[in-house]
């Protein structure tokens, strides 16, 4: 089995959120709005996506570290450290962000999204529909 | 911005499910049980995970194709093709699987999971807690 795979950047986030310290925790349902700009060669893959759709957007949290394996909850060093795989910390061996968003607008290769809690310039690596 | 990132394989799935044709659709809540075996160097990252926890497991769907960008829904060629990013098809530019699972047992670097709908040998690339 290969030990690594090549993840292609398919687009990026354009957001007023520029400081990672101000990014709400993943899944917090902050209502943060942002644009997802798809690289033009992938635009066809958006066909059929409509306003009101709920999507999972997968990002590469490019500002995150790829360690440590244990960390204190919510950065509170008074609490005992726990394993990263039981947390939502962005710092992890593969810093993939999973964002549950709602589509507010579709304009060619651009999606306006609600709930997109990633800083400006964050690479996008996948988009999926949400199953109910 | 880099056009690609290196995704590290952190573990793999050990399952009775060996044929991709028999794998239930992602998120179908099939109750499929499987083991997740973490590479020993990442085992510390499981610290604190308990029986009954709900986790998101991210896999690399290694048997998938990385194209096309449009495909007929559920493989039904009588239906009009739609963009892959509005579907859960495993075939996509970055074939990352997102699996919502429940922990049935924790044994060192191994987790017994319910709802793990990936074939035997599927690489694992991330594990996160589920926020409620």
Describe, in plain words, how this protein is organized in 3D.
The structure is a homodimer of 132-residue chains. The termini of chain A are far apart. In chain A, the strands form two sheets. A six-stranded antiparallel barrel of chain A has the order 2-3-8-7-4-9. In chain A, strands 5-6 form a two-stranded antiparallel ribbon. Helices cover 0% and strands 38% of the residues of chain A. Chain A is built from no helices and nine strands. The first copy, chain A, has a single domain (11-129), classed as Elongation Factor Tu (Ef-tu), domain 3. Chain A has strands at 4-8, 11-14, 33-38, 54-60, 70-71, 82-83, 96-107, 110-114, 123-129. With 132 residues, chain A is mainly β. At the A-B interface, strand 1, strand 4, strand 6 and strand 9 of A face strand 1, strand 4, strand 6 and strand 9 of B. Strand 1 (4-8) of chain A pairs antiparallel with strand 1 of chain B, so a sheet runs across the interface.
The CATH level-2 architecture of chain A is identified as Beta Barrel
How many strand elements of chain A?
9
Q: Per CATH, what is the topology of chain A?
A: Elongation Factor Tu (Ef-tu), domain 3
Largest sheet of chain A: 6 strands, antiparallel, barrel
Give the largest interface pair and sizes: A-B, 51 and 51 residues
What is the CATH C-level name of chain A?
A: Mainly Beta
């Amino acid at each position: 089995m290969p030990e690594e795979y090549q993840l292609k950047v398919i687009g990026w986030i354009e957001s007023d959120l520029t400081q990672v310290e101000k990014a709400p925790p993943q899944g917090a349902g902050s209502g943060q709005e942002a644009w997802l700009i798809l690289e033009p060669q992938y635009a066809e893959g958006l066909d059929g996506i409509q306003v009101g759709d709920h999507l999972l957007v997968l990002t590469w949290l490019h500002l995150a570290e790829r360690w440590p394996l244990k960390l204190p909850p919510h950065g509170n060093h008074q609490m005992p450290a726990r394993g990263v795989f039981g947390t939502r910390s962005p710092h992890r061996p593969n810093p993939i962000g999973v964002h549950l968003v709602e589509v507010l607008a579709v304009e060619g290769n651009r999606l306006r999204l609600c709930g997109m809690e990633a800083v400006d310039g964050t690479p996008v690596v996948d988009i999926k529909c949400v199953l109910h």
